[in-house]
Design brief:
The structure holds two protein chains of two kinds. Chain A is mostly helical. Chain A folds into two domains: 79 residues, NADH-ubiquinone/plastoquinone oxidoreductase chain 6, subunit NuoJ (Four Helix Bundle (Hemerythrin (Met), subunit A)); 57 residues. Chain A is built from seven helices and no strands. The model of chain A has no long low-confidence stretch (mean pLDDT 81). Chain B is mostly helical. Helix content of chain B is 68%, strand content 2%. Chain B is built from twelve helices and two strands. In chain B, helix 1 packs across helix 10, helix 2 packs across helix 10 and helix 5 runs antiparallel to helix 8. Chain B is globular. Chain B starts with a helix and ends with a helix. The chains are: A mainly alpha, B mainly alpha. Chains A and B meet through helix 2 and helix 3 of A and helix 3, helix 4 and helix 5 of B.
C-alpha cells in the first residue's frame, strides 16, 4: 500500500515538475509547481514526517508560491510566450550540473545505503513521543548551532530586502 | 477493521452534513441579522421567517446558466472555485466538536482526527484556500476581477503572518500543536484569559482572512463591482459563496478551540457548549459587518504590517518572559 502510494506520488511529483518547465503560460507553470510541492508533501507523509510535510505546504506551496504568483499577476504576463529563446549554453550547464548531482546521489546511495535508516530518529521513538517532540529535542540540542546559523541567515535576508526596498525611495 | 471503517465513514458523513447545514444557515443568519440591524425584515417569503431560503437559493444556483467568459483562462477559471471549496471542506476534518462518548459499547471520539500538527494544518490549508480567490480573479480576464484577486492575495499574505504569530503564543502556553490537546489543556482556565492580546490579534486577522467587513477590500462593491468573483455565475459562484461561509464556520470553531475552551463548560454536554460558542462567534462576524465601515486599502496594509505584526511579536516575547519568570 505504502509502496503504491510512494510510486504514484513520486511519479506525479516528477510529471508535475516537468510540467513546470514545459507549460507555456507562466501562471500555469507556477500552479504545476504548487501541485509538485503537494506531491512532495505526501512523500514526506509517507516517511512519517508530518511536520516537514505541513511545513512544505505552509512555506513552499503557501507562502513562497503565493508571492511568485502575486509577482506574475502584478507584471501581468498573460499572453503565452511561444518563441523559443536560444539559450544553448545555460542548457548545457544545467544538464551537466544535473548529471553531477545525480551521480553524487547514486554514489552515496550505493556506498552507505539510505542514510535516514541509520539515524537516531526511529519510528518507535516518534510513536512514543510524537514527531514534533523528537524533532525539537534534536533541533535544540545537537543541531542548535546549525539552527541558529539558519536563523541568522534568514534575518540577514530580511534586512537585505528592507535595504533594497528603501534605496528606491 | 470493518467496525473502525464504518464508524469513520458515519462520522465523516455526520460532520459533513452538519457543517454544510451550518454553512447554509449561516447565510440565513447573515441576511436575517443584517436585515434587523438595518430595520428591515430580511428574507420572509420562503418558509417560516424565511427558514427555507438557503435551500431555495441552492436549487436556484443549480438551474442558473453557466457563463465562462471568452477571454478567461478556462482551466484555471474552473479550478479556482474547486480549490476554494476543497480547502474549506478539508478544514472540517480536524475541528474538535467534543470529547469522546460511549454509544453501544463503542468509544467514539467527537472529532474526525486528532493530528499531531493540528493547528499547523489549519494554517497551511487555509493558505491554499486563498489561491482560489486569487486565481479566480486573475483567470476571469476582467480588470475588476484581477484587482480583486491582487488585493485578496496581498491582504491574505499580510494577515497570515500575524495570525500565525497569535497562534504561536497559544501553542507556547499549551505546549502542544494538537487541537484536542489545546482544548484539554484549557479545562481550568480558558486561553482568552492567558492570552488576551493573541485573542484580539487572531480575531482581527481572521476577519481579514475571511475578507469580511471592515477588511472586505477584495470584493468592495463600490470600487470593484464585487471583485474576484465578478465573472462567476451559477454553481461556480455558489461554490465561492459556500467556501466563504465554510471558512467563517471554521474560523469561529478555531477561535472557540484556541481561546474559548472548546467543549468545556458547566452543566450542558460538551458539543452543545461548542456550538453555543461557535454560533456566538458567527453572530459576532455578522454583527460587526453591519457595524463597521470599510477600511481604505492602504489603511488595511498599514494595520497589518505596522500594528498587528509588532503586536504579535511583542506578545510572543511577553509570553516567553512570563513563562521563564514563573518557570512554567
Amino acid at each position: 500500500m505504502e509502496l503504491i502510494m510512494l510510486l504514484l506520488c513520486g511519479g506525479f511529483a516528477i510529471v508535475t515538475s516537468l510540467m513546470v518547465i514545459f507549460a507555456k503560460n507562466t501562471i500555469h507553470s507556477a500552479l504545476w509547481m504548487v501541485a509538485s510541492f503537494f506531491f512532495m508533501a505526501v512523500l514526506y507523509l509517507l516517511l512519517r514526517a508530518e511536520f516537514i510535510a505541513i511545513l512544505q505546504i505552509i512555506v513552499y506551496a503557501g507562502a513562497i508560491m503565493m508571492f511568485i504568483i502575486y509577482a506574475i499577476m502584478m507584471l501581468n504576463i498573460r499572453q503565452e510566450e511561444g518563441e523559443k529563446a536560444p539559450v544553448r549554453k545555460s542548457k548545457v550547464v544545467g544538464v551537466v550540473a544535473l548529471l553531477v548531482l545525480f551521480l553524487e546521489l547514486l554514489v552515496v546511495a550505493v556506498n552507505k545505503g539510505v542514510l535516514a535508516m541509520h539515524g537516531p530518529i526511529t519510528d518507535q521513538l516518534m510513536q512514543k513521543y510524537g514527531q514534533i517532540a523528537v524533532l525539537s529535542n534534536f533541533l535544540f540540542s545537537d543541531y542548535l548551532l546549525a539552527f541558529e546559523l539558519a536563523s541568522i541567515l534568514l534575518t540577514a535576508g530580511v534586512v537585505g530586502a528592507v535595504v533594497l526596498a528603501k534605496q528606491k525611495q | 477493521m470493518v467496525e473502525f471503517l464504518s464508524i469513520l465513514i458515519i462520522k465523516t458523513l455526520v460532520v459533513f452534513a452538519v457543517s454544510m447545514l451550518i454553512v447554509a444557515y449561516s447565510t440565513w443568519i447573515e441576511r436575517k441579522v443584517l436585515g434587523h440591524v438595518q430595520l428591515r425584515h430580511g428574507p420572509t417569503r420562503v418558509g417560516f421567517h424565511g427558514l427555507l431560503q438557503p435551500i431555495a437559493d441552492g436549487i436556484k444556483g443549480f438551474f442558473k446558466e453557466e457563463v465562462v467568459p471568452d477571454n478567461a483562462d478556462k482551466p484555471v477559471f474552473i479550478l479556482a472555485p474547486i480549490i476554494s471549496i476543497a480547502a474549506a471542506l478539508s478544514l472540517l476534518v480536524i475541528i474538535p466538536f467534543g470529547d469522546s462518548v460511549t454509544i453501544m459499547g463503542h468509544k467514539i471520539t467527537l472529532y474526525l482526527t486528532d493530528l499531531d500538527i493540528g493547528i499547523l494544518y489549519v494554517l497551511g490549508i487555509s493558505t491554499i484556500g486563498s489561491y482560489g480567490v486569487m486565481l479566480g480573479g486573475w483567470s476571469s480576464g476582467n480588470k475588476y476581477g484581477v484587482l480583486g484577486g491582487l488585493r485578496a492575495s496581498a491582504q491574505m499574505i499580510s494577515y497570515e503572518l500575524s495570525m500565525a504569530l497569535a497562534v504561536i503564543s497559544v501553542v507556547m502556553v499549551s505546549g502542544t500543536l494538537s487541537l484536542v490537546g489545546i482544548v484539554e489543556q484549557q479545562a481550568g482556565l480558558w486561553n482568552i484569559v492567558k492570552q488576551p492580546l493573541a485573542f484580539f490579534i487572531f480575531i482581527v486577522c481572521g476577519l481579514a482572512e475571511l475578507n469580511r467587513t471592515p477588511f472586505d477590500m477584495p470584493e468592495a462593491e463600490a470600487e470593484l463591482a464585487c471583485g474576484y468573483n465578478v465573472e462567476y455565475s451559477s454553481m461556480k459562484f455558489a461554490l465561492f459563496f459556500m467556501a466563504e461561509y465554510a471558512h467563517m464556520f471554521v474560523f469561529s470553531a478555531m477561535v472557540t478551540t484556541l481561546f474559548l475552551g472548546g467543549w468545556h463548560g458547566p452543566l450542558l454536554p460538551g458539543p452543545v457548549w461548542f456550538f453555543i460558542k461557535t454560533f456566538a462567534l458567527i453572530f459576532f462576524c455578522v454583527w460587526e459587518r453591519s457595524t463597521f465601515p470599510r477600511y481604505r486599502y492602504d489603511e488595511v496594509m498599514e494595520l497589518g504590517w505596522k500594528v498587528l505584526l509588532p503586536a504579535g511579536l511583542l506578545n510572543i516575547l511577553l509570553t516567553g518572559l512570563w513563562m521563564v519568570i514563573f518557570n512554567i
